[in-house]
## 1
Amino acid sequence: MAKTLVAYFSRCGEQYGVGDITKGNTSIIADIIASKTSADIFEIKVLNDNYPNRYTPLIQFAKQEKQANARPEIVGTVQNFDEYDTVFIGYPNWWGDMPMPVYTFKESYDFSNKKVYTFCTHEGSGGVHKEDFAIYGHTAQNDKIESEKKVDEWLHKLGVL
Ligand SMILES: Cc1cc2nc3c(=O)[nH]c(=O)nc-3n(C[C@H](O)[C@H](O)[C@H](O)COP(=O)(O)O)c2cc1C
């Protein structure tokens, strides 16, 4: 049996264009992918989570973390990582890049012989990098039907559905 993992990083709190949210935009897309592909899910969480809850300080914090090329330690590990043949990695676009904890995650495992697909949520500059799939964060947050449709199209294109 093929096994699929969806690993993602996402924030709640104040977020651009959607106000105060209790479930992160990327986490909504991660759930859709996981439910459609019957995947296990792993949230990439930072051990010493000092990310501000407000958008403006978060922007500054993330900028410094990127400038420092930091590798924040993440909570826990994926059990039996070897058993997964497909791994989806999701994150919000932060400063035109992946948040640094996603680098920590990617550098912590051996992805050889696995199919790896990346997805991101963003507010205007998605798809300019190397993601396989990009969607507006506010669409993820506010338009479930459109999000499901876009994810479905993508998964069919990949041939995983
Ligand atoms: C620190 C930070 C930096 C961001 N930088 C960008 C950016 O460069 N381009 C963009 O389109 N959106 C940017 N955004 C918006 C997020 O990508 C977008 O709101 C995303 O959907 C948030 O996902 P989340 O709720 O899963 O954390 C940024 C947001 C934050 C908090």
## 2
Amino acid sequence: MTSTMVVTPYRAAPGRACGPCTLCCKVYALPEFEKAPGVWCRECAPGKGCKIHEQAPAQCRNFFCLWMSDGKLPEAWRPDHAKFVLSIFPANGFVYGQVDPGLPGAWRKEPYYTGLRSLARTILSERRHVVMFLGEEATLVMPDEAIPLGKMTSADQFRIEPAFGPNGPTWRAVRA
Ligand code: SF4
Ligand code: SF4
């Protein structure tokens, strides 16, 4: 299963609106329309919005990315600027980022890379993690490093645990 928009219990923060952002209509799969991840939805007017709006599938209408639901995230983190969409996966509370394949390295640039590692540090004590997905290639973002996890999707069940690698202590993903 590829990464799809996941309906979350979150709502738009006061004053937040998608504006010209339509990135979730590109990065996620939409099985109802047989839409693959990483390509624009046929109903999307990029930079404008959804052409079918109220008739859009429920998972679209009920999706709020982290930038929409967290009013403290700066404007630069709006997904059309950042080139990735962050969301909280309800099942494990992890922060998943789905990367725009048109600019796959943007999240490793500043201010994003420092911000993502800082977020990873903040939620680590809750055993929550930040995982960035480029298609199905997953990368675990930890406070001090980014660790490739290989092929994985947000739908896979896995946990993150400490490990010992050739360069000393590190982390690994273990499928549940
Ligand atoms: S990625 Fe977030 S801000 Fe952008 S259109 Fe989707 S919900 Fe709105
Ligand atoms: S149906 Fe509308 S909201 Fe849903 S992905 Fe397509 S353009 Fe976006």
